[in-house]
Amino acid sequence: MKAKLKEAIDLLRGKGVAYADARRVRSVTEVLVMRNGDLETASLTESEGFGIRVLHEGAWGFSSSSQLTAESVTAVAEQALAIARASATVGEQNVMLDGQAAVVDSYVTDVGEDPFEVPLADKLAILAASCEGMSRSSDVKLATASMMSFRTDKLFVSTEGSEIEQSIVEAGGGIAATAMDGDDRQTRSYPASFRGDYATAGFEFTRSLNLAENAERIGAEAAELLRADDCPARKTALIIGGSQLALQVHESCGHPIELDRVFGTEASYAGTSFLTVDKLGEFRYGSDIVNIVADATVPGGLGTFGYDDEGVKAARTDIVKDGMFTGYLMSRETAPRIGLRSNGTMRADGWERIPLIRMTNVNLLPREGTLEDIIADTEDGIYAQSNKSWSIDQRRINFQFGCEVAWEIKNGKRVRMLKNPVYTGITPEFWGACDAIAGPEEWHVWGIPSCGKGEPGQVAHVGHGVSPARFRNVEVGVKK
Amino acid sequence: MIEKNALMTLLDDALKVSPADATELVGYGVASSLTRFANSAIHQNVHEDDHLIVARVAVGKRIGVVQTNRYEPEALRGAIERAVEIARQSPEQEGFPGFPKADPAPEVASFSRRTAGVEPDDRAKGVGAAVALASKAGVELSGAFRTSVLSRAVANTSGTRQYYDATEAFLSVFAVDENGVSGSSSAYAVAFDDVDPAGVASTAIDKCKAAANPIDFEAGPIDVVLEPRATSEIMEWLNFTAFGAKQVQEGQSFMAGRIGEKVMGDNVTIYDDGQDPEGIPIPFGFEGVPKRRVVIIENGIAKGPVYDSLTAAKDGVESTGHGGIATFRGGPMPSNLFIAAGEDSYDDLLSRVKRGLVITRFHYINGLLDTKKALFTGMTRDGTFLVENGKITSAIKNLRFTDSMLRAYSNVDGVTRERQISGRNWGGIGSVTAPAVLIRDFRFTGTTEF
């Protein structure tokens, strides 16, 4: 296939295009979902095809096909060029790419145990034990355990001479117990809600989650929530734990630093960003202790890879330094518009999609101490964890999150469990009120395998390293 | 995409040699082109062509599923064998009723040769016409213009054979002025020529102009006129959390335990109809069962969800033909949703508002806060207006709402005769056809800076 794609690239070069690249992607995804001990889903999804992207007359064209014949490759190349010509007819078109050296290299995820070689029976045994553990609480009416494994093999060639092969393996899983009593319905998840936690790793990561070992506790917590008080509405100190803080970073920092979004290319769909280019280096995003990096090199991060889908090497970039906004996620097209070079964040969801700027691992750097230290240091507040709902405006300013569970903190101690916690805020005010971030011993890169963006819709796998943090004077609950 | 006869032959031949006790093959193809524009220029212009086959096999009551986009006969046989291998290692699926034997689905008017023949230049011309209007009006345009050809085929060892193909043309336009104030509009149709880029752009530009200089507005309960797209966005979330049998059976839906009860206002009727040409017809679901018209809410009373064969067997009823693709976990869901028209004009609704708001559409709704109460949150966008004494008097900055949709739709005090079709916000073929509605005392809970 490499030879066919290189021929297509040669063909396009001969037609005088400014730039072209071709990607062949072969992917396999395994999804296993068990519900109350019944196997709800056991599916394997295989996809293979290629896409060709052409920059001509200052405008982009892209076409793709699952047909891997030489004739198809040529037809797709010519169609991509025709589409670029059509693009050039509307508006001012002068796309320029930054300068990048040609790369010939390969990258493979470090895998201990190939998830596709693990016997299905072993995986199902973990899921069954998890369901059984959650169901030990009689209030739990839905016990769900799931695992997903991914393998993506990519080949990238370009008119600049790059030839890059990558094989990325990802794995993980999660459990969720839903307890019900009349109209009350409460869910507890582990290690994170909505599919669990994922990493670029083999099945050793899925095993390390100890899903079955945590199942009974999660079931009991779901049942306990039925009897918990509703979280009262008030302004108070809010401590956010684990995966919920990962989502907070995702929505209120990760998306607004996408430079394509800043330049308006998502305006009609997912929106734009309040972090406009005049704010770069000038805007206080958070308090002095807030440091955020985008790092595609973190071992095991779900947003970790060797090269992005423009052939740019994975990188680490300061996003927020000592509270000041300092950097974006950028592509070869957008970076030069602010005098910079790509930091390697363009990824496509499969062969049939063009790469877009996507989060890598957007990480809140740890400070010191533990979650318990922060709780002990809090006179009056709420500790919330595990996401239940999320919503944010089209410039990423006003957000509202619901969590599965919270605990009221009084005089440095958890005094009672609370259900249905919701909090809301304005992004820079919220991060400006961050006054404690736990240390490296609590820091974990959470893998989110479901980040949506773009039209046609694309799903990216991204990571967020966080440790629990405290925010002062947050509006908790919903105003009546 | 594979042509109909070749596809059905491929599926038939594969069924004959399947080693499973029972086999279902679903083929679905998509050839889709999308021209995306921003800042009044095309920035993304793409085409994809793929054909997926999902093999769902049963070994006894043990189920395995493999999806592949390799459809050479030997590749398809290999996929079926891998599905059988998964099934053999899996526990039995409780209540598995077998693959349904279905009558042929009715023919529907879902295909336009014109749409199938659209070239990149055709979409570019449409975008160009829209951009020219924007330039004259002094605003910038963003949006997307998509044309697609889709096919769906189902064949199983129970004897079901179904095929249909469809086209869609979708245009969304977002106009923004120099201060970042926006307006938007969209159109969705089977036929490319039924989408009028200049008309859609004009509406978006007019909205943008009307939304200029928005004033601060305090959040709180207030009457609202929800325009059709705003209503459609709420309905899409109710589809996801409430209108499918799985959500009812698992106690997630507000309808769980409340079938036959009054849950919304007398003037609210919601139904799904895969054959109705006013929507985007889809005559059968992914199990090949023809779609029935299903009334979900009738005059405010919860009547029941849509079913696939598994959920229908659990409730002892017949499938309504809403089976989803086997790789999807969400269960059966409506995909051709309608809210019944009322008797009012849009101006009638406005005239009944002493002090309230007009909502053009919402952004980032989330309906997972409390699914039993249908408690939703979301932001307004692209034109939020203050109405005083029946007239729009100014634009306001966007607001966050947090409210129970059961409470809100119990307070409906007017429904328009005219309805508008919207495509599915999350992609995929299907539609919501909705009127504008007047809702009393809708609860806003937060503000933002624009």
Brief summary of the model shown:
The complex is a heterodimer of chains A (480) and B (450). Chain A has 480 residues and is α+β, with helices and mostly antiparallel strands. Chain A has helices spanning 2-14, 70-87, 120-134, 203-208, 211-226, 242-254, 259-262, 371-376, 427-432, and strands spanning 19-35, 38-56, 59-65, 104-108, 140-158, 163-181, 184-190, 197-199, 229-230, 234-240, 292-295, 316-321, 324-325, 346-347, 356-357, 362-364, 380-392, 398-410, 413-419, 422-426, 434-437, 444-453, 458-466, 469-476.
What does this structure look like?
The complex is a heterodimer of chains A (480) and B (450). By secondary structure, chain A is α+β, with helices and mostly antiparallel strands. Chain A folds into two domains: 2-227, PmbA/TldD fold (2-Layer Sandwich), CATH 3.30.2290.10; 230-476, no CATH class. In chain A, 20% of the residues lie in helices and 40% in strands. Chain A has nine helices and 24 strands. Chain A has helices at residues 2-14, 70-87, 120-134, 203-208, 211-226, 242-254, 259-262, 371-376, 427-432, and strands at 19-35, 38-56, 59-65, 104-108, 140-158, 163-181, 184-190, 197-199, 229-230, 234-240, 292-295, 316-321, 324-325, 346-347, 356-357, 362-364, 380-392, 398-410, 413-419, 422-426, 434-437, 444-453, 458-466, 469-476. In chain A, strands 1, 2, 3, 4, 5, 6, 7 and 8 form an eight-stranded mixed sheet that branches. Chain A has a five-stranded mixed barrel with strand order 10-17-18-20-24. In chain A, strands 13-12-11-16 form a four-stranded antiparallel sheet. In chain A, strand 22 and strand 23 form a beta hairpin. In chain A, helix 1 (2-14) packs parallel to helix 2 and helix 3 packs parallel to helix 5 (211-226). The longest helix of chain A is centred in the first third of the chain and has 18 residues, at 70-87. Chain A is globular and about 70 Å long. With 450 residues, chain B is of the alpha+beta class. Chain B has two domains: 4-132 and 146-168, PmbA/TldD superfamily (PmbA/TldD fold), CATH 3.30.2290; 213-447, no CATH class. In chain B, the strands form two sheets. Chain B has a six-stranded antiparallel sheet with strand order 3-2-1-4-5-6. In chain B, strand 1 and strand 2 (41-59) form a beta hairpin. The mean pLDDT of chain B is 96. Classes of the chains: A alpha+beta (480), B alpha+beta (450). At the A-B interface, strand 2, strand 3, helix 2, helix 3 and strand 17 of A face strand 1, strand 2, strand 3, helix 2 and helix 4 of B. Strand 2 (38-56) of chain A pairs parallel with strand 3 (62-68) of chain B, so a sheet runs across the interface.
